[in-house]
Amino acid sequence: MRPKKNPQKDLNKKSGTFFVIGLLLILAMVYTALEWKSFDPINQIDVALNKVDDSIIEDAPIIELKATPPPKPKVLPIEIEIIEDDEPIIETEVIASEVDTDTEIVDPSNFEVIEEPEEVKVIWTTIEEVPIFPGCESAEDKRACFNEMMQKHIRKNFRYPELAQEMGIQGRVNTQFMINNDGTIGAIQKRGPHDVLEKEAVRILSKLPKMTPGKQRGSAVKVSFAIPITFKLE
């Protein structure tokens, strides 16, 4: 007859519990081993081989540099040169021009007063009698004849400067000249795009003939006349 085991003392009954406990202990040991951190020991090493004694430290000396002042300029004594002047002094005699009882009184009627006529200048648009260009003496409208003869004179004497042609210079030169009270051509004023064209315009106007002067209130006067001269390349 086989002996019967006591069920309360059967070890196989709690084997599962012991297995789980053992597994947990092993896992805890493995986790602790993996997470364990170790550090190298910290060694404080003094890299200085020699320590300086604080008692021998001295402050750096302060050196003061003094600039040498520049030498004072030498003051030379003033030399006074004495020149002997033996030339005689010429005294100027001043004659007084004050009036006294012996001064002769001059009669004003003995003087002849010459009145110089005031020079009158009139512009072309307000002159009463315009200057007459040679050839317009018998024309009814002397203004229109004057302008026509001026255009003929410019076309006849016109010459395009070679330098202006080479440089491609063109434009209008505004000119103004004076017809004096004796019929001659006076000062010529000009303004244009280039000095070459201005000189050519002056040359053309300087060849104008002598004219019959213009009149204002029956007296010959100076008359200013303005005309543009156009230079255009074909």
UniProtKB/TrEMBL annotation:
Protein location: Cell inner membrane
Keyword set, alphabetical order? Cell inner membrane, Cell membrane, Membrane, Protein transport, Transmembrane, Transmembrane helix, Transport
UniProt-listed InterPro entries: TonB, TonB-dependent_transducer, TonB/TolA_C, TonB_C
Q: Which SUPFAM superfamilies match?
A: TolA/TonB C-terminal domain
TM region positions: none
Q: How does it sit in the membrane?
A: Single-pass membrane protein
Determine the domain of life of the protein's source.
Bacteria
Q: Does the keyword Disulfide bond apply?
A: no
Q: Show the PROSITE patterns listed in the entry.
A: TONB_CTD (PS52015)
The UniProt entry, under PANTHER family, shows: PROTEIN TONB (PTHR33446:SF2), PROTEIN TONB-RELATED (PTHR33446)
Can you tell me which family this protein belongs to?
A: Belongs to the TonB family.
Q: What is this protein called?
A: Protein TonB
Q: Which organism is it from?
A: Maribacter dokdonensis
